[in-house]
Amino acid sequence: MPPAHPFDTSYLRDGDDEDKLKEECGIFGVVGVADAANFVALGLHALQHRGQEAGGIVSYQPEAGFQSARRFGYVRDNFTSQAVMETLPGELAIGHVRYSTAGSKGQTAIRDVQPFFGEFAMGGAAIAHNGNITNANALRRELIERGSIFQSSSDSECIIHLMARSLQRNVPERMEDALRRVEGAFSVVAMTRTKLIGVRDPLGVRPLVLGKVGDGWALSSETCALDIIGAEFVREIEPGEMVVITPSGVESHFPFRRQPSRFCIFEHVYFSRPDSILGGRSVYETRENIGRELAKESPVDADLVCPVPDSGTPAAIGYSLESGIPYAMGIIRNQYMGRTFIEPTEQIRNMGVRLKLNVNRALIKGKRVILVDDSVVRGTTSRKIKEMILDAGAAEVHFRIASPPTAWPCFYGVDTPQREKLLAATMSEDEMRDHLQVDSLKFISLDGLYRAVGEAGGRDSKCPQYCDACFSGEYPVTPADKVNEGFKMKTAAE
């Protein structure tokens, strides 16, 4: 559903808008520390950029059993209340922040909010999932025909029902059994009464990391959430790995057939926080490298390099350093954009972008400006920003984009429009330049992006090192449900 008025941005990531790709969620878990739910709340706060729609925490204490709290909105508004946190006792807890990609997008019911909980013969278990199950519709139909009763519209609930039907002896084995039936992308944190469990799909599309906190352990979507609780980053969970953690230690094994990793390259470009570490590389440094590659590939005579805040900032710094063109904050972001209650007249509605971003007129006037952004999806925001820059008196506007053209939808845990709504799916680079009415428009090449993330030889076309389906149309896992609904995969001719 659209917001009630143009300033109701409570459903959006801070500084984000409807013209950005949105990560589905963040997951976090802790075992072996007192008041584990408090640590989880802090971790989820650090992962808020991965989902602002809703959040939930499940904890376990022997005396109280499993306890849960699920709420709409930001972590800061829900899980900083002492009254709420006192209902979540114990030394073991997991949590989830959500932006819906599967399920009732924009119309989330509280029953769709994770973590999900199930009571099995050998005891209860809770699960939180980051990613998308690409055969969820088929699994759901099969499970319903066999008597399962679903409570939510989320694809993640399929995992709980598959676990319930498994004949394996304990929860970790049932989870293995269930996940072998699942296709797509999944990073999972789960908990039993005594164990914290982490799993990544065989391709490792979505991230998951392990940390040590005091005498206990933590699992997180990103390292930045370990930092906030003072945890030591130990390592990434490997693709296809399952770890079963108790306060005494970590057991690891690989229940799935080993495959070459296909980690999501867009995590490096945009989704992850710049202070996180991915694949042993600083996300910030990678984004700066992207800017440097972009400057090598697409130089232009200009007076200033300006980021589109905040996601374009590291790449703009890299572009400036490589090109020698001064870096400047030509667009200022309002850090306190929130919900207001102004009547949504058409005049007010058109001011939406200006609420979040404003041009530094004194700096821009008369200048040839390079604007660096992370992506162009529909192009609506790019046009508005260009108009603001020209209104401020810029002599020229040149867009440089820190990712290749996004021409294909993602089915692995990212909210993307239908293909026909993606600008790059229907236009060439020159046609997009004319559509946006800018002096020039250049995207980083796919090989350039691979070089920036550390692949000196660029992209291996025979066996790509990352999942780049949103750019290349080459899906490492066939999106079975979408194909059944009529989605046309890339042909050899394309």
From TrEMBL:
Q: Which family does it belong to?
A: In the C-terminal section; belongs to the purine/pyrimidine phosphoribosyltransferase family.
Lineage runs:
Bacteria, Pseudomonadati, Pseudomonadota, Alphaproteobacteria, Rhodobacterales
Q: Please state every residue range assigned to the domain named Glutamine amidotransferase type-2.
A: 25-248
Give the matching NCBIfam families: purF (TIGR01134)
Q: Does the keyword Magnesium apply?
A: yes
- Cofactor binding comment, as recorded: Binds 1 [4Fe-4S] cluster per subunit. Binds 1 Mg(2+) ion per subunit.
Q: What would be the name of the gene that encodes this protein?
A: purF
Q: What is its EC number?
A: 2.4.2.14
HAMAP family in UniProt: PurF
Database matches in InterPro entries: GATase_2_dom, Ntn_hydrolases_N, PRTase-like, PRTase_dom, PurF, PurF_N
Annotated positions binding [4Fe-4S] cluster: 264, 410, 467, 470
Record: residues binding Mg(2+): 311, 373-374
Write out the GO MF terms.
4 iron, 4 sulfur cluster binding; amidophosphoribosyltransferase activity; magnesium ion binding
Pathway(s) this gene product operates in, as recorded in its UniProt entry: Purine metabolism; IMP biosynthesis via de novo pathway; N(1)-(5-phospho-D-ribosyl)glycinamide from 5-phospho-alpha-D-ribose 1-diphosphate: step 1/2
- Function description: Catalyzes the formation of phosphoribosylamine from phosphoribosylpyrophosphate (PRPP) and glutamine.
* Name by which UniProt lists this protein: Amidophosphoribosyltransferase
Query: What keywords were assigned to this record?
Result: 4Fe-4S, Glutamine amidotransferase, Glycosyltransferase, Iron, Iron-sulfur, Magnesium, Metal-binding, Purine biosynthesis, Transferase
Question: Pfam families annotated for this entry?
Answer: GATase_7 (PF13537)
Which cofactors does it use? [4Fe-4S] cluster; Mg(2+)
**What is the catalytic activity of this protein?**
5-phospho-beta-D-ribosylamine + L-glutamate + diphosphate = 5-phospho-alpha-D-ribose 1-diphosphate + L-glutamine + H2O
Catalytic site: 25 (nucleophile)
